[in-house]
Amino acid sequence: MALQKEDRRIPRLMRAIVAASIALLMPVALSGTAVADGGKSSRTWTVQVGSESSDQAIQGMSFLPENIYINAGDKITWKANAAEIHTVTFLAEGQSLESTQPFNPGNPQYVEPQGGNSYDGKTYYNSGVMTNVSDSGFKEVGRYALKFPDAGDFTYYCLVHGMAMKGTVHVRDAGTDYPYTQSQYDRQTNKQERKILRDGYEQWDAARAKADDHTVIAGADNGTAMLMRFVRAHIVVHVGDEVTFVNDGMGAPHTVTFGEEPADELAAVGDPADFTGGDLSSGLMPPMSTFTVKFNKAGEFDYICALHDFMGMKGTVEVRD
Ligand SMILES: [Cu+2]
Question: Could you tell me the distance, in angstroms and rounded to a whole number, from the CA of residue 3 to the centre of ligand 1?
Answer without folding.
Answer: 60
